[in-house]
Amino acid sequence: MTMSVPKKITFYTMLTVSAVILFFPIVYAFMISFMTGPEILQGKFFPESFHLDNYIRVFDRLPLLNYLLNSFIVSAGVMLGQLVVCSLAAYAFVFIPFRGSNFVFFLFISTMMIPWEATMIPNFFIIQNLNWLNTYQGLTLPFFALAFGTFLLRQHFKTIPKELHEASQVAGLGPFRFFLKVVLPVSKTSLVTLGAYGFLTTWNMYLWPLLVTTNNSVRTVQIGLKQLQSQEVATDWGVVMAGVIVVIIPTLLLLFLGQKQLQKGLTQGALK
Amino acid sequence: MKKVELIGISKSYDRQKDVISNIDVRIEPGEFFVLVGPSGCGKSTMLRMIAGLEEITGGTLKIGEQTANRLPPSRRDLSMVFQNYALYPHLSVEDNITFGLDVKKVPKAERKKRAQDTAEMLGLTDYMKRKPRELSGGQRQRVALARAIVSEAPICLMDEPLSNLDAKLRGHMRSEIRRIQRQLGITMIYVTHDQVEAMTMGDRIMILHEGKIQQIGSPIEIYNHPANPFVATFIGSPPMNLAQAEADPGTSSVILPGGEPIRLPEGAFEGIGKGPVTVGIRPEFLMPAQGTSEHPVFRAEVTNVEVLGHETVFSFLAGTEEWTAKWNGQWQIQPGDRIPIALDEESICLFDAKSGTLMKKPAARQLSVPAEGAAT
Prior knowledge:
The structure holds two protein chains of two kinds.
Chain A (H helix, E strand, L loop, with lengths): L4 H28 L4 H5 L11 H9 L2 H32 L5 H10 L9 H10 L6 H5 L6 H12 L3 H10 L3 H12 L1 H16 L3 H6 L8 H10 L6 H32 L4
Chain B lengths: L3 E9 L5 E10 L4 E5 L6 H9 L6 E6 L2 E2 L10 E4 L11 H11 L4 H15 L14 H14 L4 E5 L7 H18 L2 E6 L2 H7 L2 E6 L2 E6 L1 H6 L4 H6 L6 E8 L4 E3 L5 E3 L11 E7 L4 E3 L8 E11 L3 E8 L2 E8 L9 E6 L5 E4 L5 E3 L16
Parallel strand pairs in B: 3-8, 3-9, 6-7, 7-8
Antiparallel strand pairs in B: 1-2, 1-4, 4-5, 9-10, 11-12, 11-14, 12-13, 14-20, 15-19, 16-17, 16-19, 17-18, 20-21
Helix pairs in contact in B: 2-3, 2-4, 3-4
């Protein structure tokens, strides 16, 4: 695309300004994580020196590595569960014609309109009665069936030419092998998108882990951060921010890696 | 190689109206059988029923000696080429070709060998590692073909495989498919809407219209003796000229709406009474009038002229109908001219005006071709 110089300058200025505004909280948190208490209170932006005291203290005070591991297991579990359940559900909606399939699908979709908080209490009772409090399955299982994910994958599966399905039928592929060998590889882009979405949402989840965990055994990082904040009368913000930075690193990593994958997938383009 | 037999096959989507009705045909082993008809005539549906992708609602389908109505597509021992090729976009050309073999548990070494042989046959060896999107239309077409051939199925179904190619490539692939079919001796069932493909490729052609068989026969037979006016206008380019006329066996002539009587040779009216008939004549039998022609000559006003280099195709008004004539060579004719046109009366065919059945066949084509300026 060619742009005139003044136009370019305007665009880049606007982009820079919005980037600075958006990124400011993270940068500020990053700066605070190197400051001592008095420095923070003085309202400085740059710390006097970059030392890792706050980071050492955050790992001292909390089993942060443990929390990170828990978060990772829970997020990865939810991601995999969502991918499996949603892709199979979407496959059924697209490739297996049955009576009322559209009705069932819209019923499925309509659950998107019910806020998650409304179903939280029944979900909690189920988990409690299954004795799944403080377990990984209690943290992950309620999130496997995701209407949004089914919808996303269904839309992608629908773009797969039906001739591919027919060609594999003629070649002798059963429904499940067609799913594994054709549908999934062809829909890699959507699967990556859904995977990243599922992972990040679960990583940032706060309320549900708070409800179903009562001890440190399976607690996730988001709760750990909250603990940092309320453990003392006067919160040591430097330590909290050090925790925050540690917690968002995996998220950012995933975003960067995922973005590359996504771009690759998107630029591949469809084959007529 | 296997035969395919359709006995009273019909198909209906709503249990009331048949989109295909009473198809009876026996496709011989090793035959190149073409299903041709205008779009929406049910030819693709018929192919898909043979493939097992569409349910058969009535009749019996036999593949080989076995009744195949309820067999799943994979057990029917056939391969299929789709109009849009249906290549797996995530697999390389080689994997696309061997995809079906993999499922059929063919040993790896043999898979490789068969893929190599097929690729060689179709000139694909240089592209084995490429993905389908990196290929041109013609190459994709070849991969689809290779996939069908490599399975070594005795029956191959093709659903308008050439319609996405440009004219030149289409001509080339036409002869290539025919060559491969002969070489391997497979039974081929080929669906097309293009009458040129049907004429040049088929051992036998079936013409379908509105779900019913119009005619089955060899291309030349169908061209020379079309069973009804639909077939007559569908096969041949430009199509056969038709006109409603009055038969008068007494004077052995037909009277065109313009009032022009055409005397037909002796015996032409055997079994035809006085009354309305449909007259048909192919454009190549409307010839330039020679000085003293033994054929009836009439003058007509030219409405449109196409000079194609080796021949000249022009249309003119014959009574109320617009007819087309095809003359060899480059003729200097202008729209609006009134020119004399000779009509080979022996090549006329007559159809029943109501039922459309062929009542008088045209004479054998080799006869009465004047030495000069005649059509091919």
